[in-house]
Every structure is written in structure tokens, then in C-alpha cells.
Amino acid sequence: MVMRTYGLSGSGMDIDQMVKDLMKARRASYDKVWQKKTQVEWKKQDVNTIYTLAEDLRNKTIADFKKQTTLSPKQVTSTNETVASATANADAANVSHSLIVQQLADGVKLSSSGSITDTTAGKTKGTLADQFDGITATSEFNLAINGKTIAVKGSMTLNEVVSSINKAGADVKANYDTTLDRFYLYSNKTGSAAVVNFSGTDSAGLDFLFSNLKIGTSNANLNSLGMTSKKADANSTSSDSVEDAFGITGSFNVTIKKTAADGTVTPYTVAVDSSASIDTMLDDLNDKLGAGAASFDAATGRITIKASDINNGWSVEGLDQFGMNQLLQNGQDAIVKLDGVALRQGSNTFTASGVTYTLKSTSFVDSANNPISTNIGVQPDIDKTIANVQSFVDSYNTFMALIQKELKEDKYSDFAPLTDAQKADMKDSEIKAWEDKAKSGSLRRDPILTQMVSNLRLSFTEPIKGLTGKYQSAIDIGIGTGKYFDDDGNLTTEANNGGKIYVDTEDLRKALEEDPDVVFKIFGTPGDTQSTEGVANRLYDQMQTSLSRLKTEAGTPNVTDTTSNMAKSIASYKDQLYDMNDRLAQVEARYYKQFDAMETALSNLSKQSSWLSQQLGQ
In 274-373, where do the E strands start and end? Predict the structure, then answer.
């Protein structure tokens, strides 16, 4: 707005103030539309708050109360928590299970057999070249772990090797403890499916694993990959003697054991003279193990022995002098007897018939070395069921109390939203007191909320069709809205409780003792229609209907809304205000133009008056 200042020749009136006073009357209708828009915005916020609370009640509280695990919880006991503990879901039978743990599941765990840095030889914990014999700064070799290749250089540190292994996606975890000076390698899984497979590692890599890191194992059991020896002297061939190639002297026996499918073990003894050639020793071993089971690779200078007959179990003992190490390591399954049935599990936590067992140790044994069974008892947890019901009812009643407060809140029609001009003449405390009343009662007797309360109340009172016996509704097990009429037919105070739910714990406990699943039957039973489904399912569906109506009316919180009824109403008011503001600006401009014309006329009149005075004075 341009400030108008008029000189002595003018009217001397405060034109700006006069225009403001004239515009006040004109702005009254604009302010009324603005106040209506503000009231709709406030109501929209209130509805959005109710939407958030209703959605939370439906998707968390009611959704959880539909579950059988909530409505029919189980109590599980173990006669020996040191051996095993257990939990049970609602599907578990109320029986006692016998459990014997013969073996725990485990993964592959490889660790250095001792300190790996030879400080007596002047080695230090720096790069691999600094730390290990046989590795130089220019050394390069590959490790293969579970089919993933890790490139290693002598200029790397062991911690860098650890990082490369862990990033390779080989399903293993490597670690180097610098204090203990030991290297560790673990499979990420347990059970027989857990594996650490070094197949594909080059010769220098095998030396690094077995000789430098000292993580090999000489487990005698053979698998399809088998185990490999330390490296023979340079340029050795299979025709060289065992003594010349590996530095082994004297004679020794190798024991080969074949375990048939029925568990029968057949041992074989192979006598080895170190003066004989490697070929001779391998021929004697293959005569028992099968053709090709034992071989020598001149390129790597290593002997490999593997199981060639998968129909039998094979093991070899007596080859320690060759530094034999397994190329493939497997974890072990848990072995248990559950109710007399032998089971193998890849994890120490497993579920059977609704009971989840957590194995902690192998079973204890008696004086005759017979395993002592652990009894796992499953029974209904009535106390927890009652607690779950009460917790649900408390949450439900809290929500209903809030809805009732909104429906009954007083509305003060004489208190409209304050304009900025009105606030300018009021104290902060007065503004707050005024706006508290202006905002009050925006949802009083709201039809959507009224219908919600009515529908939720009916969900508790109507019986579930299809159920038989004495318990067919929530009221039958002590859960309801209370009696609206006394024995004489008079209206009670419960008629105005706003849909609040009560729990008679004595009646509920009695019903649960007769039928441990009765709460689930009443609340969780699925159905094709409202009359056949349980109370919780009814509440869940009814809340969705109410949420849809609230969304249509006011949209959803924190989402741009242009389609709800209130959003459209607000947009309409904004358009009206825009048009009205444009018209007010035109009126104000016209007023100033008229006053400007008046001032011009008065100025001309003043000039004429001065001229006449001059003429008359002559």
C-alpha cells in the first residue's frame, strides 16, 4: 500500500486511516470465509489424529490379538535347562516330549595350532613377507575358499588378507588375533551343510594355509576331495623314494578303514618302506582304497588321497609324517532322539510339531553310561492368556475413551478463529483461551465416529455362528460391555459407558480351564461373514471400514491430499478468498482514487480562493 501524504492545500484528513476504516466493513465477509476455512483445517487435523490412532489400534493391537499365539499361549517346561530349553506355538499339543541329545550341531572351526610368527628367526608382524618364511614382497598366490578366489600378495598384511576373505562372499568369517598370534576361520553356518573348501587353492596358497597359518587339520576321514600332503622336495617325481622326496626314514604302517552302510568296519594294513618309491606306496594304498584314490602331482609336489567309493565311509591313519591336511571341512549336524525317533538337524535350534527346541549340551548319562532323557512339557498358559486379554481390553478402552471424549466435547459456536487483526489487541493467554474454545467440539456427534463406536460394540455382543457348546460369544467367557439393564429392567450406568469393555477374570479363567482354546475360538475364528468370524476379526474388518470413511472425509496424515471431502472444501474456500482478496484490492484502489480526486479538487478550490482574495484586495 502506498502511503498518502497531503499538504496544506489538501483536506488535512488522514486518508490512510479513513480507507482502513472503510475496508474493515468490506473485509468482514472475507474474514468469515477465512474462519470457515480455518475451522475445516482444524477439523481435518483432528480427523487425521483419530485416523492415526485407529490405524495403530487395528494394525498392531487388534492384528496381534487375532493370532493364535496370543490367544492360546503355551507354557513349556524342561527338566534339564542345561541340556535343552523349548518354546511352543499355539499349534503344539499339550503333551510331554522326551528328548535325548547325542550331538550338538556345529560349524567348521579352523584355527592356528600355535603362534604363527617366528620371532626367533627375526620375523615381525608387518607384511606377509615380514611375518612368514618363504614369502617375499613380490610373492603372489591365490586362496580358493568355497569357490571364491582371494588374491594374496607378499606386500599385504595379514589383516588385509582377513578383510579380503571376509569380503569375498565365501560364507566364512576370518579373524587374526594379533595378541595370541593366531589365525581363525569359521563357517557362517552350522550342520553338515556348513563347509570350508580349499579346493582350487594353488600350491603356494596351500603352503600359506597349512604351513604359515597352521590351520590345517589331519582328520583321517576321507571325502570326495580328500586331503593333501606337504610339498615334496623340489623336482621330485613319483619314481623317487619316499625318503628322498619327503625326508621320511624307516618303515611304518598305514591303516585304512572301510565302513559299510550297515556300520560294519573293515580295517586294512598297508606296510610302507620309506626306501620304496612313491608309486609303490600309492599302488599299495589304491589296492585297498580303489583305483585313483591316492595320487602324486609332480607339478605341486603333493600327494592327494580321497574317497573314490561313495557307497562306503573311508578313513586313513598313519600318514601324519606327510603333513596331510583336509581340503574340505564340513560341520556336523545335531543328532537327537525325540520321543524315541532319531533326528538330524543342521542347527541347535529347530521346530517339530509346534515346539521349538534349543539344544545347549549333550544329554547327561547315568552310572551305566546310558543317556538321561530331558522331558519337555507343554501345557496351556492360562495366566498369560488372561493377561493378554486384559492388555488388549485396556488398549481398546483407552481408544474408545478418546473417541467418546471427541464425540461429547462441548462446542462453542460463538468462538470463531481469530484473525491477525483480532490477535493484535489480545494477550497470549487470552489468545490461547479463545482458541481452545474455538477448536473444541469439532468432532462432536461426528457420524463416522458414532457409527464406528456402534459397530465395534456390536462385534462383542453378537455370538459367533458355527460354534457349539456353552461358549459362543465374548460375553459367555466374561468379556463384554457390561449389563445395560438390571434384573428389574432398569437402565444401568453401563448404558453410557461409551462402549467400554470389561473382563470378569473369574469367568474367563473358568472357561479356559474347561477349554484352553476358548479365547481363540471366540476371538480368532476365521469366517466368510461377520456373523461367523471371531470378535477380533470382526473388529479388524470394522476398523478398516471406519478408516476408509475417515480417509474419504479427511485424507490420511502426512500425505498430500487433494481428493478428500475436507481437502476439496478447503480448496474451495481458498478460491473464494483469492477472488475476494482481488475484489478488495480493487475497492481499496477505487477509494484512494476517489480521495485523490477530492484532494485535487480541494487544491484547485484553494488556488481559486487565493486568487479571488488577491483580486479583492487590490
Answer: 294-297, 302-305, 313-317, 325-326, 328-330, 334-338, 341-345, 349-352, 355-359
For residues 426 and 428, give the distance between their C-alpha atoms in angstroms, rounded to a whole number.
7
Report the pLDDT value the prediction gives residue 585, as an integer from 0 to 100: 79
Tens digits of per-residue pLDDT, 430-466?
999 999 999 999 999 999 999 999 999 889 888 999 9
Q: Would you call 60 exposed, middle or buried from its count of C-beta atoms within 10 A (0-12, 13-18, 19+)?
A: exposed
CB 480 within 8 A of CB 549: no
- State the pTM of this model: 0.69
**Cβ(406)–Cβ(452) under 8 Å?**
no
The label of the residue with cell 484473525 reads 419
Instruction: Say if CB 155 and CB 129 are below 8 A apart.
Output: yes
Grid cell locating 504: 470378569
DSSP reduced 3-state for 151: strand
Q: Assign 526 to helix, strand or coil.
A: coil
Q: Give the tens place of pLDDT for each residue, 208-221.
A: 999 999 998 877 88
- Output the CA–CA distances (angstroms, integers) from residue 42 to 49, 154, 227, 579, in the order listed: 11, 71, 78, 23
DSSP string, 365-401: B-TTSPBPPEEEEEEE-HHHHHHHHHHHHHHHHHHHH
